[in-house]
Design brief:
The complex is a heterodimer of chains A (about 140) and B (about 140).
Chain A: E1 10-13, E2 16-17, E3 22-35, E4 47-61, H1 69-79, E5 83-88, E6 100-107, E7 112-113, E8 121-128, E9 135-137
Antiparallel strand pairs in A: 1-2, 1-5, 3-4, 4-8, 5-6, 6-8, 6-9, 7-8
Chain B: H1 4-15, E1 22-24, E2 35-48, E3 53-63, H2 69-80, H3 88-92, E4 104-110, E5 114-117, E6 123-135
Parallel strand pairs in B: 1-2
Antiparallel strand pairs in B: 2-3, 3-6, 4-6, 5-6
The chains are: A mainly beta (about 140), B alpha+beta (about 140).
Chain lengths: ~140, ~140
């Protein structure tokens, strides 16, 4: 698999497949830059990875049908409980060339809006809700 | 999955509610006014992942004839109106899911008066409405 035009991502939120309602997804796994610079002749600063954080953001076309976007996201926000979010770049089997990003997440906000005449959308920010951050599966199912 | 022929035929069925207007889902080679025809314009594919959404744009073109100066314009004005039994916008949006075939549709605008040339040099009065349809790709 080489470069790709992204159009076949799989997005599952708490086991509900919302892929065909999503038009934008970003997976961010970040670490603090922690400085370890000590005295020495090199003249360069030294940094290491500090504490990590993870955020997955997605934009969905809103849908009030049963078990669709609104009922899934609003319910998860209202309960405050953690859930699994999983993203794979392509449909099909999870492999080393089609890995799945998985995270125990929580929603800290829910809302929607848009201009008159536009397709109604929801922007969801899934924050790290566990201690594992983003893990990458290379086998199994999403 | 959205099928263009299904979309066109359903839009034409929505127009059937307008009294006295012949409607065709396809372009007419020799329309007899008052008549409406439907022309597909652009399609924007892949608006959502996994073929979840395509955006179809169509033109609904209506001809009202021009044998009577004022009568034809009054009829076209009733079609340009946003409400009423002859409103093109109201008729097209009366079933926004086209019987469940699409997610939603909206009449986004109208060209206003147009004069269409016909064989023999005679012109026909009419207008064009732009319709946007959101439909699943699979």
């Amino acid at each position: 698999m080489g470069k790709l035009v992204w159009r076949d991502a799989v997005i599952k939120v708490a086991g509900t497949d919302l892929s065909d309602h999503a038009n934008d997804v970003t997976v961010e796994d970040t670490a603090d830059e922690t400085e370890f610079t000590g005295f020495g002749p090199s003249g360069y600063k030294e940094f290491g990875q500090g504490l990590k954080d993870a955020t997955i953001t997605a934009t969905f076309y809103q849908d009030f049908a049963g078990s669709s976007v609104h009922q899934t996201l609003q319910g998860l926000y209202a309960s405050g409980s953690t859930f699994e979010i999983a993203i794979s770049p392509m449909s099909g089997s999870i492999t080393a060339t089609n890995p799945a990003a998985k995270m125990t997440a929580r929603l800290y906000s829910y809302g929607f809006g848009g201009a008159v005449g536009d397709a109604l959308t929801v922007q969801a920010t899934f924050r790290n809700g566990g201690t594992g951050g983003v893990t990458w599966a290379t086998a199994g199912t999403i | 999955m959205a099928d263009l022929s299904v979309i066109r035929e359903a839009l034409a069925r929505n127009l059937a509610a307008i009294p006295g207007l012949a409607q065709s889902p396809y372009l007419l080679s020799s329309p007899t006014p008052p008549a409406a025809e439907i022309q597909p314009d652009e399609v924007i594919y892949d608006q959502a992942m996994r073929r979840g959404l395509d955006r179809w744009r169509l033109t609904v073109r209506v001809f009202v004839g021009f044998t009577s100066d004022i009568g034809a314009q009054k009829r076209l004005d009733r079609m340009l109106a946003t409400t009423g039994v002859e409103s093109i916008k109201a008729a097209l949006e009366s079933d926004p899911t086209l019987g469940g075939a699409v997610d939603d549709l909206r009449v986004t605008g109208c060209s206003g008066y147009r004069l269409f040339s016909r064989d023999g040099g005679q012109s026909v009065l009419g207008a064009e409405w732009q319709v946007e349809v959101l439909a699943a790709g699979t």
